[in-house]
């Protein structure tokens, strides 16, 4: 059996030819044949396939029978080895147990050695790492100390070393990462702290700018005073004119050093302070360095300039009541000067924080604002003393900033506008002075009791009259007390105007021109206006007007002395080409002409007042045989009035002719006005009827007027010149009194006519008034032949007069 099995098992089966067994040498063709449409092809395929499967099963069985014996032998040998393996396992286990027991102590000691070696290695590593970390920690500790002590610039340098040198060495440690994360935050804190310090500095400098400016302006004023003193001494040959000033000491052409302190000993010993002495600029420097290190300098510069521009605008805003006191202007100027002194220091002490272009822009903006503010506020000022102090402040202000390199030409141009304002305030002040002088004047000649009184008057006013000087005391000077007072006040005005011209860096010729122009304004506008207003006042009578004429005459003569006075002050010869002349002559002439005109006007007004008192009975049958009372009073008034004109100045031929002309003109004007008023009374349209008796009474009044004219109330008239003022009335009255109509009508238009001055229209108007009266008073005249003839004559004359009037009109 075994033999069979082994023979079977060792028989090697033949290899199976799958392609032939299945006949699949052409699988594609075979598959195609399966699915062809041949009948029972699928069934035949399945039968063949089953046969092929059975064939394979037999071959597999043969293969298993062939290898079965070898498998049985291998199992038998494996069972034998199992026993030996169990023995070996027991021996190994026993050996291992004995080995473990023997090496237990060695193992314990070995573990201790290993732990020791590990600790040594860790310690060495730790020391090595600590040596790398300790400098980092030390630098960080140093950074904290610097921050606490506010040494921010050094702290930034420490941070830079930490970032670039120390932290990269130990960047793997967590604490280093924390440090690295904290450094940007610390930088921001430093920026914020430094910016806060800068803000505190800006706030502080805004509060202390006035102190800085006050110090700078005081030094500039001392320097200007010193230079002025040196210039005066140089003109005397003692010193050489200084060229420039440096650090409070003046250098001259010869190289000598002269102390720039001219005040008291205390002022001389006072230390000259600068902006750096008064202000701590360290916050600015520190903040600038910090932002530079942080690479954010542009941000800092932009912020600083923006804030300073805002502060500049605040500084340039004046107080509402600044114009009321000089202290308001001084504080305003001090703040501005302090601001720009600080900016000038920053410009020179830092590199690029502010530039010259930036400061120039600020200054140009400030200068425009300053000029606008000063124009506005100075216009509110009506006190010349305050305007003068303002001018001095502007000069010191300009000199101070000019020393720091800022252009100030526009400020000096502004001073010319302020000068005009100053002159206006002076003119207003002197207008009040002149008005008060005129109100207090008694308008009578100045009485002089003694020679001392005479010398006192002459010392105040340049009066010279040989005839009056020969007279014994007491005597009277022709002008009233207002004349020397006016002359003195004009000189005081010149002195006041001169004060403004000081320190304006102008030549003597320009100053002379300024004085003459301002004096001309005083004479031609202020004094002239006061005189005109005085002349127009109702309470000024004829006597006062005569005295005003006398006063203006003497003031006119004194104008040349005012010219000499200005020349002595300015040392400018009056023969200079561009020298302005004083216009006082025309001023006083105009005032005198106005006074003369007012005399004529007041005379005429007085005549009108007397005329209004006339009370004629126009229907009277016969006259009273004497002149009217109102007219006699009027004539007496005129006689007494014209006696006043004997007081007019006549100490020389010019004044004598002038006084005679005024008196003659006044007298002629009064007579003409009286004649015209009487003529208007006759021809008044409201007067409807006039009797012959009224004509006769009116004729008596005119006769008195003619007698007054012929009595020569004012000397100087030639022949019957004055009587000619009444010639129109005389010829008209003669025509009606004589009833000489035939002669009038026959000779009308002839140069030799007896009634040449009688106008046909005038005669017609008066004749019609008499015609109506004849009709009313002679009811039965038509029954009397003479009356009828007279009435016919009147009607005939009226017709002829009307034809003459119509002929004239055509």
UniProtKB/TrEMBL annotation:
<protein>
    <recommendedName>
        <fullName>Exocyst complex component</fullName>
    </recommendedName>
</protein>
<dbReference type="InterPro" id="IPR046361">
    <property type="entry name" value="EXOC6/Sec15_C"/>
</dbReference>
<dbReference type="GO" id="GO:0090522">
    <property type="term" value="P:vesicle tethering involved in exocytosis"/>
</dbReference>
<dbReference type="GO" id="GO:0006886">
    <property type="term" value="P:intracellular protein transport"/>
</dbReference>
<keyword id="KW-0268">Exocytosis</keyword>
<dbReference type="GO" id="GO:0000145">
    <property type="term" value="C:exocyst"/>
</dbReference>
<dbReference type="InterPro" id="IPR042044">
    <property type="entry name" value="EXOC6PINT-1/Sec15/Tip20_C_dom2"/>
</dbReference>
<comment type="similarity">
    <text>Belongs to the SEC15 family.</text>
</comment>
<dbReference type="Pfam" id="PF20651">
    <property type="entry name" value="EXOC6_Sec15_N"/>
</dbReference>
<feature type="domain" description="Exocyst complex component EXOC6/Sec15 N-terminal">
    <location>
        <begin position="48"/>
        <end position="217"/>
    </location>
</feature>
<dbReference type="InterPro" id="IPR048359">
    <property type="entry name" value="EXOC6_Sec15_N"/>
</dbReference>
<dbReference type="GO" id="GO:0005886">
    <property type="term" value="C:plasma membrane"/>
</dbReference>
<dbReference type="GO" id="GO:0006893">
    <property type="term" value="P:Golgi to plasma membrane transport"/>
</dbReference>
<dbReference type="InterPro" id="IPR042045">
    <property type="entry name" value="EXOC6/Sec15_C_dom1"/>
</dbReference>
<dbReference type="InterPro" id="IPR007225">
    <property type="entry name" value="EXOC6/Sec15"/>
</dbReference>
<feature type="domain" description="Exocyst complex subunit EXOC6/Sec15 C-terminal">
    <location>
        <begin position="411"/>
        <end position="769"/>
    </location>
</feature>
<dbReference type="Pfam" id="PF04091">
    <property type="entry name" value="Sec15_C"/>
</dbReference>
<comment type="function">
    <text>Component of the exocyst complex involved in the docking of exocytic vesicles with fusion sites on the plasma membrane.</text>
</comment>
<keyword id="KW-0813">Transport</keyword>
């Amino acid at each position: 059996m075994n033999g069979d099995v082994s023979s079977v098992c060792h028989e090697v089966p033949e290899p199976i030819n799958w392609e032939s067994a299945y006949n699949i040498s052409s699988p594609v063709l075979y598959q195609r044949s399966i699915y062809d449409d041949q009948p029972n092809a699928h069934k035949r395929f399945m039968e063949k396939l089953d046969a092929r499967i059975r064939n394979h099963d037999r071959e597999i069985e043969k293969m298993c029978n062939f290898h079965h014996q070898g498998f049985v032998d291998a199992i038998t040998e494996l069972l034998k080895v199992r026993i030996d393996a169990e023995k070996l396992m027991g021996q190994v286990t026993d050996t291992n147990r004995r080995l473990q027991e023997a090496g237990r102590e060695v193992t314990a000691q070995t573990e201790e050695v290993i732990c020791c070696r590990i600790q040594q290695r860790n310690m060495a590593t730790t020391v090595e790492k600590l040596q790398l970390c300790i400098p980092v920690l030390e630098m960080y500790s140093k950074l904290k100390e610097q921050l606490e002590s506010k040494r921010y610039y050094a702290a930034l340098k420490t941070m830079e070393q930490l970032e670039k040198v120390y932290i990269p060495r130990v960047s793997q440690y967590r604490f280093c990462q924390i440090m690295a994360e904290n450094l940007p935050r610390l930088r921001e804190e430093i920026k914020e702290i430094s910016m806060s310090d800068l803000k505190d500095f800006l706030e502080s400098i805004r509060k202390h700018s006035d102190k800085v400016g006050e110090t700078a302006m005081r030094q500039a004023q001392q320097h200007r005073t010193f230079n002025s003193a040196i210039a005066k001494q140089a003109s005397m040959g003692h010193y050489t004119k200084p060229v420039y000033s440096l650090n409070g000491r003046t250098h001259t052409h010869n190289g000598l050093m002269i102390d720039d302190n001219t005040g008291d000993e205390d002022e001389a010993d006072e230390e000259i302070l600068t902006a750096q002495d008064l202000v701590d600029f360290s916050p600015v420097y520190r903040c600038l360095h910090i932002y530079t290190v942080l690479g954010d300098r542009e941000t800092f510069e932009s912020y600083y300039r923006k804030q300073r521009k805002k502060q500049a605008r605040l500084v340039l805003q004046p107080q509402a009541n600044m114009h009321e006191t000089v202290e308001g202007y001084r504080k305003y100027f001090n703040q501005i000067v302090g601001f720009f002194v600080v900016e000038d220091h920053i410009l020179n002490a830092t590199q690029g924080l502010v530039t010259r272009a930036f400061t120039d822009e600020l200054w140009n903006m400030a200068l425009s604002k300053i000029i606008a503010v000063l124009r506005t506020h100075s216009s509110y000022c009506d006190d010349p003393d305050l305007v003068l102090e303002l001018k001095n402040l502007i000069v010191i202000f300009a000199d101070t900033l000019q020393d720091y390199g800022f252009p100030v030409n526009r400020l000096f141009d502004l001073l010319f506008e302020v000068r005009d304002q100053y002159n206006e305030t002076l003119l207003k002040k002197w207008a009040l002075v002149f008005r008060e002088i005129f109100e207090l004047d008694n308008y009578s000649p100045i009485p002089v009791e003694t020679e001392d009184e005479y010398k006192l008057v002459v010392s105040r006013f340049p009066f010279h009259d040989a005839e009056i000087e020969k007279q014994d005391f007491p005597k009277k000077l022709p002008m009233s007390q207002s004349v020397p007072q006016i002359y003195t006040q004009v000189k005081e005005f010149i002195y006041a105007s001169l004060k403004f011209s000081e320190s304006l860096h102008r030549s003597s010729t320009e100053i002379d021109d300024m004085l003459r122009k301002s004096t001309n304004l005083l004479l031609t506008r202020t004094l002239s206006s006061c005189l005109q207003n005085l002349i127009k006042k109702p309470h000024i009578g004829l006597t006062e007007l005569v005295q005003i004429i006398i006063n203006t005459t003497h003031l006119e003569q004194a104008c040349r002395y005012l010219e000499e006075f200005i020349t002595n002050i300015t040392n400018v010869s009056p023969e200079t080409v561009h020298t302005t002349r004083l216009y006082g002559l025309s001023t006083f002439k105009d005032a005198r002409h106005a006074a003369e005109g007012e005399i004529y006007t007041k005379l005429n007004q007085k005549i009108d007042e007397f005329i209004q008192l006339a009370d004629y009975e126009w229907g009277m049958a016969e006259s009273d045989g004497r002149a009217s009372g109102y007219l006699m009073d009027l004539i007496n008034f005129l006689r007494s009035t014209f006696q006043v004109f004997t007081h007019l100045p006549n100490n020389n031929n010019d004044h004598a002719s002038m006084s005679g002309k005024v008196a003659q003109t006044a007298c002629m004007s009064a007579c003409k006005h009286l004649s015209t008023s009487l003529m208007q009374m006759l021809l008044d349209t409201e007067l409807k009827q006039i009797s012959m008796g009224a004509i006769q009474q009116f004729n008596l009044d005119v006769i008195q007027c003619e007698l007054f004219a012929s009595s020569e109330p004012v000397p100087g008239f030639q022949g019957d010149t004055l009587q000619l003022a009444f010639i129109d009335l005389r010829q008209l009255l003669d025509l009606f009194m004589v009833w000489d109509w035939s002669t009038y009508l026959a000779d009308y238009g002839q140069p030799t006519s007896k009634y040449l001055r009688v106008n046909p229209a005038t005669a017609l108007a008066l004749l019609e008034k008499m015609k109506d009266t004849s009709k009313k008073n002679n009811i039965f005249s038509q029954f009397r032949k003479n009356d009828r003839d007279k009435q016919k004559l009147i009607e005939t004359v009226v017709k002829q007069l009307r034809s003459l009037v119509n002929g004239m009109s055509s």
